[in-house]
Design a protein that fits this description.
Layout: E1 12-15, E2 24-36, E3 41-53, E4 56-62, E5 68-74, E6 81-93, E7 99-117, E8 125-143, E9 147-162, E10 170-185, E11 189-200, E12 210-223, E13 229-236, E14 243-250, E15 253-260, E16 265-272
Parallel strand pairs: 1-5, 4-7
Antiparallel strand pairs: 2-3, 3-6, 4-5, 6-7, 7-8, 8-9, 9-10, 10-11, 11-12, 12-13, 13-16, 14-15
Length: 284
Amino acid sequence: MQPVKVNDNPLYQPLGNPNLAPSFNSRFNASYNSYKVLSQQSIYISGGFGFVNKAIVSNTQTDSTGKTIAQSVNLYGKTPINYNIYSSINRKLKFLFDSEIGLSLNAGGSTSYSYVKSQFSDEVELNQIVNTNFSPSLNINRYKDKSEIYLSFGPSYNAQVASLQKERSNKGWGLQGWGGMSFTLPKKIKLQADGEYTYTPKSPAFNTSFEQIIINASITKSFFKKEDLKFTIRGNDLFNQNRGFRRYAYSNMITQTNYNNISRYFMFSLVWDFNKMGGGTPQK
């Protein structure tokens, strides 16, 4: 397969590879689930492991003029892998107002490869990128007829390390959390709020940290006996902090991306929920 030649960027030239062979992906998954009715305790564990034979990776070579030639090639002698595990345990505790308390762990990682030849090197080198993530959390839930509260928070560890630039690795401990609540008040009024918090630390690769908190809230007034007419006032991102942010590793690069998101706004809505479907045959 030969790529279509595009002249938009004369310093970047993709090349085809007629000798490219197909790669083979394999993956294994397992899970365990248990629930005890009397104690209302649940346990869930799942995990997976995958690897790729004859993986198709990128081979980029940059000359002294800054021109880069990129080609897809098969990887031999190394096997990219990926893995993940998720576990949680939850139990309802009566002495905490019938709240459900839980602990969870989400972890995963991957190892990928690429070939790189920079303008400062005389030979093609194999670059290995190791991704690791680890995030335990404490979860609290309480559901009643007229109220609902949920909360989840905990630290998170993320790392992207490239073998050719270990001194420019991106790793560190962050913090994340989210939650929400709703309350039904007299006069058919309902209050709702939800939010999330994110903190990503600076690292050897990036000298700035990222922190934001997003809060949304709404108030709804229902009318009529069946509450089929609802008027809602909603505010999104009340602190005006919703910014796009992502750090990731790909090929021979560890990249940070910042982008615009929909920021603070307010919305009014009037919703009439009606049903014109006919009922059953009237009784005689």
